[in-house]
């Protein structure tokens, strides 16, 4: 059988999530203090990506919440979505990137430290769900664009100054 | 949340006027700094999703020079001044008299960075003081921060505060351009003013349209 070469890049926006299967890849652009969390199953070649903005849904001051916006609800919702795609949760592994501090300020405004807080919250939620964190590229003060390939389980990370990197 | 949704066209006109006054003063400051004719476009006030916000300057990955500051006082919010790299290069080249200066180099000169910082300081200062004079509101801006990076990474910094309350943002968008350029669609820079959701009622009350 000839394998189709028409693989697609599925794009995930800010505070959104999606799931892909090989040969497609999944990508999110312009991560600043946000964190891109990739959960994947190496054997089934299925991966999900959520682009979280805030650490915890308790920060929400709205009645209905967009689960993908928060680290805690976003990771839980992505696990559910992956289950629907036929993945067993105990097989899931994680790679994460983002959580930068784009601007340095003298003020101790809490929202300025949102990047590191997002990373902490993501790690906490991963360990709560017993998902091992295989690799991360977090912190610093550069924006990142990331793309995950479920076939190779590699996460490509592009920054403006350091070019392309894989983890 | 309900507050954002109850905004009428009269309210939008008031926000437009804010953009108009602020950016007109900033454009004048820029003109006299660079000794070039800088003009502005009619402000746009839009309610957009976070993802549509990314498209306002050509996508989350577009590399730009961004100045960011927080506004505290009678109204809170975030303000950005965004320039395309090539245009920022030209502005700074003429400010520091160095034709080789560029933000796309790996090692950007300190002098150029501090000139850009100062340019941001002056422009945002004139935008906000005009706004403050016009409205009578006391506004206290933080010292502006500078970043040369992907637009998505830069602008999302200003969406954090808003994202606790909403999935949409009201953006007062004013663009400036240099007069005499042939391409009329070309925009040189954007001012984005993103009032915090809690501040709208205060702004409208102060300006008598609550």
Explain what this protein looks like in three dimensions:
- The complex is a heterodimer of chains A (167) and B (210).
- With 167 residues, chain A is of the alpha+beta class.
- Chain A has one domain (9-166): 60s Ribosomal Protein L30, Chain: A (2-Layer Sandwich), CATH 3.30.1330.200.
- Chain A contains 2 helices and 10 strands.
- Chain A has helices at 71-84, 114-128, and strands spanning 9-11, 17-21, 25-31, 35-41, 46-52, 93-98, 133-138, 144-149, 154-159, 163-166.
- In chain A, the strands form 2 sheets. Chain A has a 5-stranded mixed β-sheet, with no helix packed on it. Chain A has a 5-stranded mixed β-sheet with strand order 2-5-4-6-7, covered by helices on one side.
- In chain A, a hairpin with a 4-residue loop joins β8 (144-149) and β9.
- In chain A, α1 crosses α2 (114-128).
- In chain B, strands 1, 2, 3, 4, 5, 6, 7 and 8 form an 8-stranded antiparallel β-sheet that branches.
- The model of chain B has no long low-confidence stretch (mean pLDDT 85).
- Chain B is an alpha+beta fold and 210 residues long.
- Chain B has a single domain, classed as 3-Layer(aba) Sandwich (Chemotaxis protein chec), CATH 3.40.1550.10.
- Chain B is built from 8 helices and 8 strands.
- The chains are: A alpha+beta (167), B alpha+beta (210).
- At the A-B interface, β3 of A face α3, β3, β6, α6 and α7 of B.
Largest sheet of chain B: 8 strands, antiparallel
What would you report as the Rg of chain B, rounded to the nearest angstrom?
Answer: 17 Å
Strand fraction of chain A: 25-35%
Strand count of chain B: 8
* Residue share in β-strands of chain B: 25-35%
Stated plainly, the CATH topology of chain A is called 60s Ribosomal Protein L30, Chain: A
Question: What order do the SSEs of chain A take from the amino end to the carboxyl end, as H and E?
Answer: EEEEEHEHEEEE
């Amino acid at each position: 059988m000839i394998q189709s070469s028409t693989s697609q890049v599925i794009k995930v926006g800010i505070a959104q999530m999606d799931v892909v299967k090989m040969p497609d890849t999944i990508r999110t652009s312009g991560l600043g203090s946000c964190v891109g969390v990739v959960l994947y199953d190496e054997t089934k070649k299925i991966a999900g990506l959520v682009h979280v903005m805030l650490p915890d849904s308790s920060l929400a001051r709205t009645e209905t919440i967009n689960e993908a916006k928060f680290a805690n609800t976003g990771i839980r919702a992505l696990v559910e979505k992956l289950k629907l795609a036929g993945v067993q949760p105990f097989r899931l592994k994680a790679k994460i990137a983002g959580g930068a501090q784009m601007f340095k300020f003298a003020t101790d405004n809490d929202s300025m430290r949102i990047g590191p807080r997002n990373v902490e919250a993501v790690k906490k939620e991963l360990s709560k769900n017993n998902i091992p964190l295989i690799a991360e590229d977090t912190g610093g003060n550069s924006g990142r664009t990331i793309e995950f390939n479920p076939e190779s389980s590699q996460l490509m990370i592009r920054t403006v100054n350091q070019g392309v990197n894989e983890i | 949340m309900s507050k954002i949704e109850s905004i009428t066209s009269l309210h939008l006109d008031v926000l437009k006027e804010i953009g108009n006054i602020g950016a007109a003063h900033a454009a004048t400051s820029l003109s006299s700094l660079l000794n070039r004719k800088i003009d502005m476009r009619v402000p746009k006030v839009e309610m957009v999703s976070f993802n549509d916000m990314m498209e306002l300057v050509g996508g989350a990955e577009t590399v730009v020079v961004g100045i960011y500051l927080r506004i505290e006082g009678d109204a809170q919010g975030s303000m950005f001044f965004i320039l395309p790299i090539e245009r920022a290069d030209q502005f700074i080249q003429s400010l520091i008299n160095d034709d080789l200066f560029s933000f796309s180099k790996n090692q950007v000169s300190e002098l150029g960075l501090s000139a850009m910082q100062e340019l941001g300081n002056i422009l945002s200062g004139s935008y906000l003081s005009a706004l403050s004079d016009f409205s009578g509101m006391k506004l206290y801006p933080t010292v502006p921060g500078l970043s040369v990076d992907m637009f998505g990474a830069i602008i999302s910094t200003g969406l954090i505060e808003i994202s606790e309350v909403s999935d949409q943002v009201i953006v007062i968008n004013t663009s400036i351009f240099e007069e005499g350029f042939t391409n009329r669609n070309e925009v040189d820079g954007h001012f984005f003013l993103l009032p915090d959701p809690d501040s709208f009622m205060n702004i409208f009350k102060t300006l008598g349209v609550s």
